[in-house]
Amino acid sequence: MDKRRIVQFLTAFIYNGNLPGFVNGRIWQGNSKQLCVPGLNCYSCPGALSACPIGSLQSFVSGVGLRFPFYVLGLLILFGLLLGRLVCGWFCPFGLIQELLYKIPTPKIHKNTLTLKLTYLKYPIGILFIIIIPLAFFAWEGVGIPAFCKFICPAGTLEAAIPLITLNADLRSSLGLLFGWKFLLMLFTILISIFIYRPFCRFICPLGAWYGIYNKLSLFGIQVDKVKCNGCNHCIKVCKMDCQEVADRECINCGECLKVCPTKAISFKKL
Amino acid sequence: MKKALWFLAIVFLVSGLYQKDYIAVLQKAAIICLECVGIG
């Protein structure tokens, strides 16, 4: 097992260390939930010890009170400046799940011009479901909704809904059409992850879109020594994401390109 | 640009901590999110 995979498993365990929750069906309510983790990890997962940044961000624009999310946005900018999409490649449990599904031996759909175009989908999805829809509901109904969590997030369905409804009869009896929709979306995400590398991260995830903005600015992550680079493009050929160049907005800093660079021009940034 | 973003992050974080935004985060995260589960 390589270093990145170990970090991914460790991260999933640290984010979801409330193991009794998976037995008694109760979520963690301790003070550690004041803090958002950098990766996508549903705070209603019975194991979750901290808060999901996307869910927390939406909680400020949903409900009856509307507040600017200074704290969560500050954390998100900080995570971006420190790590960029290193978060996606190393510290996101939902990314790990997709990567493991992609290991199932089947014919694969590799990156192409269509997948590259689809990478732009995550920007309008983020703006629509995290800002516009919650605010529109607030304006019309007086109550905003966390639209991304409610209508899209397959991580919530997989990490929270499945274990909670398995362990909790009251929740099971409340399931309706919305759950059916979210369950189908989760099944689709799981199924497509077997054939396409990290489809949710590449095409849908607002967190990936956000951190991608910081990839060139981040303190940690991958960099290219332009002097050493001979332009062979081995790095782009080996990359399973839709990168056009190393460390661009789609780069999750997985480090696969480091292994194939003949001139050792690619490296992880050091302080 | 980078310095401005660092400045913004710190200003937002300090403002958020001053307003005790973390309490709102805890309040949301400490109860089952019915929307996340697909009920609410």
Task: Please outline what is shown here.
Chain B: This is Thioredoxin. The complex is a heterodimer of chains A (271) and B (40). The longest helix of chain A has 20 residues, at 122-141.
**Structural class estimated from helices and strands of chain B:** mainly alpha
- The residue fraction in helices of chain A comes out at 40-55%
Q: Mind telling me the C-alpha Rg of chain A?
A: 19 Å
Low-pLDDT stretches of chain B are none
- What general outline of chain A do the C-alpha atoms trace? globular
Strand order of the largest sheet of chain A: 1-2
Helix-residue proportion of chain B: over 70%
Mean pLDDT of chain A: 94
Q: What share of the residues of chain B does DSSP label as strand, in percent? A: under 5%
What would you say this structure looks like, in words?
- The complex is a heterodimer of chains A (271) and B (40).
- Chain A is mostly helical and 271 residues long.
- Chain A has one domain (3-220).
- Chain A has helices at 3-15, 21-24, 53-59, 70-83, 86-90, 93-102, 113-118, 122-141, 147-152, 154-167, 169-173, 177-195, 199-204, 206-213, 234-238, 256-260, and strands spanning 222-224, 266-268.
- Chain A has a two-stranded antiparallel ribbon.
- The model of chain A has no long low-confidence stretch (mean pLDDT 94).
- Chain B has 40 residues and is mainly alpha-helical.
- Chain B has helices at 2-18, 21-29, 34-37.
- Chain B has one domain (2-37).
- Chain B contains 3 helices and no strands.
- The chains are: A mainly alpha (271), B mainly alpha (40).
- Chains A and B meet through helix 3, helix 4, helix 10 and helix 12 of A and helix 1, helix 2 and helix 3 of B.
